[in-house]
Design a protein that fits this description.
Elements: H1 9-48, H2 54-90, H3 93-99, H4 104-142, E1 155-162, E2 165-173, E3 180-190, E4 193-206, E5 209-213, E6 215-219, E7 225-229, E8 232-233, H5 239-243, H6 254-266, H7 272-294, H8 308-335, H9 340-363
Antiparallel strand pairs: 1-2, 2-3, 3-4, 4-5, 4-6, 5-8, 6-7
Helix pairs in contact: 1-2, 1-4, 2-4, 2-7, 2-8, 4-7, 6-7, 7-8, 7-9, 8-9
Length: about 375
């Protein structure tokens, strides 16, 4: 067995080129077919809005295609691995490489390195293109493919935590220091015990807090309601904590989602599901590295034994099992059953071990 990790430069480039060409061809074919099928169901909805035509159809394609590409890229890497190794095996090229002293890991090394490059490009593509396309497409769908209205920052029924206190706002208009809070209710608590309830029709930013007008306070202990006029409440609560809406992790980049999670945590809102989605933005592109390992079973063994097709099916089953486990773990993380980090990374680490065990037990 050779000491180096990679085979010769010529063999490495040969394997990586075969693998990458097949990956690009498969993802292009999948995007073309799936986008055509998707248009069959959505084109009627797009054209149903008065004034929409070919330009809106092409706009939809430009927004939907990145989503399809990101979703099926790991699957394309798996199929490219199986096709590449099965072809090399049927042509006895794998046998020749192993006869020259290469181990199974060395045969797979160029594919794993190439898939690492695919993973890096996938992360950048998801972060810079897919997230923006998803956010725009979701907004467009909400208005039934009409013109997307300008978001002025108005929010309704917003809850914010200020230490032990809770602040409820019926409506938030505007952004930043110009934000106007309407129908403000402050629940004054101490150690979880409710002391008083303050209510004001409006509140505006004043220094580090929010100044109310025509405020009233209900004292829980005495049961008395009193007019207190203008007072400052929610000291230290930033304007963006009120203007935060429901965060769609698919429509945000990794760093934007990380910032939103921090803001939501400061506002006292639950963030576990979003944290799982944030870590999944890294583990999902890295799943491309797993595919050569899971699909490697198709590349080894004697092709003349008649079991090459069976080995290829086993490789696809391992890959599909990973996708099922990944979606299941992420769903459990969203429900709070799994910790966020475990929900995002447990399937990746588990199937990496499974792939290594299968490869070592069968070939090494």
């Amino acid at each position: 067995m050779q000491a180096q990790f990679l085979p010769s430069r010529t063999v490495s480039l040969y394997l990586a080129r075969l693998f990458l060409v097949r990956t690009v061809a498969i993802i292009a074919a999948l995007v073309l077919v799936l986008q055509a099928l998707d248009l069959l169901s959505e084109s009627g909805n797009i054209l149903a809005h008065p004034g929409n035509g070919d330009a809106e159809i092409w706009r939809y394609i430009s927004l939907r295609s990145p989503q399809i590409m990101a979703r099926f890229l790991p699957f394309s890497v798996l199929l490219a691995t199986i096709f590449t190794l099965a072809t090399l095996n049927s042509n006895s090229e794998v046998t020749a490489m192993k006869a020259s002293g290469l181990s199974a890991h060395q045969v797979l090394a160029p594919l794993i390195i190439a898939s690492l490059g695919v993973a890096v490009l996938s992360f950048v593509f998801n972060d810079r293109v897919v997230s923006r396309a998803t956010a725009t497409l979701n907004q467009w769908r909400k208005v039934d493919y009409a013109a997307i209205p300008i978001d002025h920052g108005d929010r309704v029924r917003v809850w914010v935590r200020d230490g032990d206190d809770l602040v409820e706002v019926g409506q938030v208009q505007g952004r930043g220091n110009a934000a106007l809070l309407t129908d403000v209710t402050v629940f004054d608590r101490d150690g979880g015990k409710l002391l008083s309830v303050l209510h004001a029709p409006h509140a505006r930013r004043d220094g580090a807090g929010w100044r109310t007008d025509k405020a009233t306070r209900f004292d829980v202990a005495s049961g008395k309601l009193s007019d207190i006029g203008s007072v400052i409440v929610a000291r230290g609560v930033r304007p963006d904590q009120f203007t935060l809406s429901n965060v769609d992790p698919a429509g945000l980049s990794f760093f934007a989602l990380r910032t939103a999670i921090g803001d939501l945590a400061d506002a006292g809102r639950p963030t576990k599901a979003l944290e799982g989605s944030m870590w999944h933005k890294i583990s999902e592109p890295l799943s491309s590295i797993l595919m050569p390992l899971l699909g490697a079973v198709a590349g080894f063994g004697l092709a003349r034994s008649g079991k090459l097709f069976v080995r290829a099916v086993i490789g696809m089953m391992l890959g599909f099992a990973y996708f099922v486990a990944d979606n299941f773990a992420l769903s459990m993380g969203n429900l709070g059953a799994y910790p966020p980090f475990l929900a995002a990374w447990a399937p990746f680490l588990l199937f990496m071990l499974i792939g290594e065990v299968v490869l070592i037990r069968t070939e090494e």
